[in-house]
């Protein structure tokens, strides 16, 4: 690397080519609170790469607010902030009330009720993929599985699953020419500036969700859409149309993307570490704990962003009111001060206090128990069936510094005798 002054984690080439790790390491060691330049109209941001600095920001919502945007680095004006506000972009009492609407549906006890369904679904997914012998692991396993769980929770037909996948790809891939309808940095995206991800796919999700809401309003359904349209948050403020739209969109994206990419990355890491795969096949009782290592290594979301509400400092570095502060979860998950030999896959690593779901604080991922259950069941079934798996083509990565995504992963399966 040349000079830290020339480093910017706004460079998407680093992420498309799976090269941010050396940058994270250098920043963590030499400039753990680093100023990254951006192209206009953005003004740059602070990058945090040390685990404990990240945790401190996540837990201090009064100093580091989510209200001005969390999921990307775009600087929003007042109209955009108002139009795009979701539970993620809300702090305090309102955030707690919005979160509580769905919290009961995602507790470990609640999601355990899906285990029988998940085991049947996993078996069907793997039966179909393995019958081909050669297949794309993303399309045939990782993308297919969690989206079907989400479809059940939303009570939408399987025939709509391809729409949910497509919408997620187009929104999360808003910086990838292969997926984006309109690149978020292009002049053309201005017409979509009030939509999440600056993507026309967001409007399609809104329209689809509102149609479901109209069908279920005033009825006694127990699906997630019915809960949203027929219950009032604990603060007594009913969901507005914008609130419903953004909540529904969040379920569509978060309920699919992160689990999908964790499942894919985990298979890739296991193929690169056959002794770890063999250990889990010999001792499947280790799989529930191995899921934590899968999540740490996968780091399916590279970062979340906050905005400083006042002049402050982090690790001795002065931060000005209004500055963007970016918490790089993927860097925190490889901090050697917290994780011994952080680049080594160790399915028995204990403790494993990774930050793939956040690490404490009010915004910790609501669906973490469901994600853990889905990943565990997938690998309990998959590892019991195979003697090995080989990559047979190029692994293609999403061009994004937000979601650590894999688009294609062609493999050949070797079934156990």
Please describe what this structure looks like.
- It is a single chain.
- This protein is an alpha+beta fold and 417 residues long.
- It is 46% helix and 11% strand.
- The chain has 18 helices and twelve strands.
- The protein has a five-stranded mixed beta sheet with strand order 1-2-8-5-3.
- The radius of gyration is 21 Å and the shape is globular.
- The model has no long low-confidence stretch (mean pLDDT 95).
Largest sheet, in brief, is:
5 strands, mixed
Briefly note the structural class of the backbone.
alpha+beta
Report the sheet-strand fraction. Answer: 5-15%
The tally of helices reads: 18
The strands making up the biggest β-sheet line up spatially as: 1-2-8-5-3
Defining traits:
18 helices, 12 strands, three-stranded antiparallel beta sheet, 46% helix, alpha+beta, 417 residues
Brief summary of the model shown:
The protein is α+β, with helices and mostly antiparallel strands and 417 residues long. The protein has helices spanning 12-16, 20-30, 51-59, 78-84, 92-103, 108-112, 115-130, 137-142, 144-154, 161-172, 200-216, 224-230, 241-254, 257-272, 274-282, 287-298, 329-332, 368-385, and strands spanning 33-36, 45-48, 64-65, 134-136, 303-308, 312-314, 317-319, 324-328, 386-391, 396-397, 406-408, 410-415.
